[in-house]
């Protein structure tokens, strides 16, 4: 069996690797690991898929780096390998046998609802820091569009980032979207993206970020610009131990916690079951993937949005020592 993640530089995928290895050991499965050189590196993932086919793996677990890997996944399935996606639902979803993932749209909605309520009617000047600007993946648009939907902002096409009206009304008042910047899921990308957004409009008071490394980079840029926690709300998605600590420290105001170890464990167990019985798990009701859960994490709860505090989140986070 092979596990092919997006990158080795993100604690999310490191936790996923640890979870998969533990599950493989428990089930007596030999596990080979591979990763893209960076988030979005499709070529290295394709090479890893081809290697898995060549060595006769029973199955592949993969967090797809983009649509270019789908042809290689099809070749793997044609060769008799079971392919399970983790974290990112491919388009189409039936390009793999099953996906174990966060409901990324819901994760975005939760931080959007929290933001709208926390603003309490104040004008929202929003900067959005996404994953890519050169390719389309579901985790990217689902989080972004879910956030805007949670804010009560009309989205034009739910599979396209950045095509919303630049100004209008959110559920509590008026909004202005300053723009969308891509950060490739990395801290340095988040810092550069935030600098670009501030150059467009220094009055930004809401920052949506795809993940917590991006959020920390954005925080650094805001701090360098003389903007503190009282000036800007930063919201994100991940729920790693570092990110939960940043929520506790007031660097991030709210995040949606996801569970990569659970994704990996379920993926390994599903391939074992597929090999032994030929039966695949079913997607969650109303979804085209198996939902592994999400929880809003904040120490500033609001009415009408369920959340857990950082103490509870720290007890179930991932990526800690």
Write the layout of secondary structure elements.
Layout: E1 2-5, H1 11-27, E2 32-35, H2 42-54, E3 59-62, H3 70-78, E4 82-86, E5 98-101, H4 104-119, E6 124-130, H5 138-151, E7 167-169, E8 174-182, H6 187-200, E9 206-209, H7 212-224, E10 233-238, H8 241-248, E11 254-257, H9 260-277, E12 290-291, E13 295-297, H10 310-315
Helix pairs in contact: 1-9, 2-3, 4-5, 6-7
In short:
The protein is α/β, with parallel strands linked by helices and 321 residues long. It is 40% helix and 18% strand.
Explain this structure to me?
It is a single chain. With 321 residues, this protein is of the alpha/beta class. The chain folds into 2 domains: 2-102 and 259-288, Response regulator (Rossmann fold), CATH 3.40.50.2300; 104-257 and 295-315, Response regulator (Rossmann fold, 3-Layer(aba) Sandwich), CATH 3.40.50.2300. The chain is 40% helix and 18% strand. The chain has 10 helices and 13 strands. The chain has helices spanning 11-27, 42-54, 70-78, 104-119, 138-151, 187-200, 212-224, 241-248, 260-277, 310-315; strands at residues 2-5, 32-35, 59-62, 82-86, 98-101, 124-130, 167-169, 174-182, 206-209, 233-238, 254-257, 290-291, 295-297. Helix 1 (11-27) runs parallel beside helix 9 (260-277), helix 2 (42-54) packs parallel to helix 3 (70-78) and helix 6 (187-200) packs across helix 7 (212-224). The chain is elongated.
